Amino acid sequence: MIRILAAILVTSLLPVPVHAYPLDGYPETGIRRVEGARLANEGIIPGRAQPAGALLSTAEVDLQLLDYPNLDLPAPDPAFTSQILKLLGNDAGRYGVAVLDLTDPARPRYAEHRGDFRQNVGSVGKLLVALGLFQALADAWPDDLAKRRQVLKETLVTADEFCHWDHHKIRLFDVEARKLTRRTMKDGDQGSLWEYLDWTLSVSSNAAAAMTMREAMLLRQYGKDYPPAEPEIQRFFSETPKKQLTELFQRTFFEPVTRNGLDLEQLRQGSFFTREGKRRVPGGGNSYGTARELMNYVLRMEQGRLVDEFSSREIKRLLYMTERRIRYASSPALRDSAVYFKSGSLYSCKQEEGFKCGKYMGNVKNYMNSVAIVETSAGDQRLDYIATLISNVLRKNSAVDHQTLGTRIHRLIEKAHPAPAGDQVPATTGDTGN
Description:
Blueprint: H1 26-29, H2 32-41, H3 78-88, E1 95-101, E2 109-113, H4 126-140, H5 145-154, E3 156-158, E4 169-174, E5 179-184, E6 190-192, H6 193-202, H7 206-222, H8 230-239, H9 242-253, H10 255-259, E7 267-268, H11 275-280, E8 288-289, H12 291-302, H13 309-319, E9 338-348, E10 365-378, E11 381-392, H14 398-416
Antiparallel strand pairs: 1-2, 1-11, 3-6, 4-5, 7-8, 9-10, 10-11
Helix pairs in contact: 3-14, 4-7, 6-7, 7-9
């Protein structure tokens, strides 16, 4: 039986920016944080109004390539690639970049530089958490979308040791009291499966990702008997031999990669996102990604080929940004565009004369990774493109670097598809915080 969703008690009201899922999505999904964002946008509770690009309805957030199911990545266009390479300047050797211009989907343009450059992509790996869960859900109920929606909306997930520990803050919104709490996850926090997915992708909570991974493994293990009761969950993870848990982990998160036409040697999430999750369930080695394989992930999603059309559409909606934009997505040029985004960073420092370590400014490693879909509709001008970036540029603020590239790539795409005469849209300005 579906675990009944209980209300979360919260104690404070904070006008805090959040992002992901269309603002009208609460009735369908039960994601309470989304309702808080909608009320803030309408001025009913404190919060910020959203730019035009963040105000699409759920119905408007849809897959763009359903009519092109056989489209594969084209061969890189030399001229387009040369233009992208020029944007990278002297740091080009520390980037892997792929850009797919789908403004005219019948004649796509593709640019790629070091597309097979592989490194740990950090929180971008949470895209594979979503894939694993939606694959398990579809395998349990392949022909029953209503049941899948019910499981996502009504399954109650209670945080346990798997969530230990994380500095990312989740948003807990009490719909009746219209109060929002923003804090790190703790044992006993409850939310629906859809809400845990939202916390995983919207605020990139490692704790929520670990709990979502736990649920994906349970879905894979129990199938139509999911969700098991809490005592059975604790028994299963305590008594199942570690080797069997590793095998289950790989069936849950490795197998869907290859089943969906992706290369496990180029895209893999090899472990849990929390220390306790890693301790309780040994994974399958390293985590990594490349710009090319992340592009293939997004391409298949837009085609409805990640698991199926329902799953692809829901993953895209979970990536839709409806509040504060960061890193690549914070480019002022993207303010009025719909942006679907995931990023991840890892950096570390050592003592170096004349260098001061800072956030996203490592001198040992300085990984920054971005996946962005940009959809622009301004007057008669329409732009639609995907950009994936993998970088390790030392001693520079990589969040600012990606933001700058976001602007430059957008201007390049705009130049290739100019608005009709008399319908030029002035350049936008906006918050450039990262």
